[in-house]
Amino acid sequence: MPSSLHDFCLWVEKTNLSMFVKTNEWVVPTLQTIHILCVAIIMSSIVMITLRIVGLIGKDESVQAFAARFLPWIWYTIPALAIGGLLQISAEPERSLMNKIFQLKMVLLVAAMGGTIFLGRKISASAAAAAGDAVAPAVNQVQVRLIGVAVFVLWIAIIVAGRWIAYAVGL
Ligand code: HEM
């Protein structure tokens, strides 16, 4: 049983899965391509929602309609990112798991996911209040915009961290 993160990495490196990913040259480029396509889906969705929240596009549709259309794409795509990312890690576990930038990326991911859930709830509450729901709490629109922009910045920070990992090997 591995007793530390380093031991765990050594253990992962010896698994059949790690051997498979390492010894088949097409696997890592395929996983990286899928990772980038998933990033594109997430960022397209978050850009559309953010632009609508700040009022730059789609003013003939409600913010809630935008969120209902684009938020699910984020939740569908994260499992694919996680599976593909973990498979990449299996090839060289120390490169990622022991890397401070990778660890930062995971913290940012949790924050971005939490922020996105919070944003979705604020948008729903705002729509309920606008529709005259007496029990719905009043929602400050400036607050929704600020949360939207903060969540967008968090997703961008994940991309920066993802790219940075390669230049921070050994950190
Ligand atoms: C869900 C868990 C995730 C895991 C386990 C994961 C894992 C990884 C790994 C292992 C790499 C390769 C790093 C390297 O060795 O250079 C990588 C790269 C990258 N990741 Fe993720 N990732 C995840 C989610 C995300 C998300 C949500 C985003 C952005 C929205 C993202 C954006 C990127 C980017 C931009 C790269 C650089 C790709 C390249 O340079 O080819 N990742 N990720």
TrEMBL record:
InterPro entries xref list: DUF6644
Protein's UniProt keywords contain Acetylation: no
Domain named DUF6644: residues: 9-167
Protein name per its UniProtKB record: DUF6644 domain-containing protein
Pfam families: DUF6644
Keyword Lipid metabolism carried by entry: no
Keywords: Membrane, Transmembrane, Transmembrane helix
Stretches that traverse the bilayer: 34-58, 70-89, 101-119, 146-166
Organism, scientific name: Methylocella silvestris
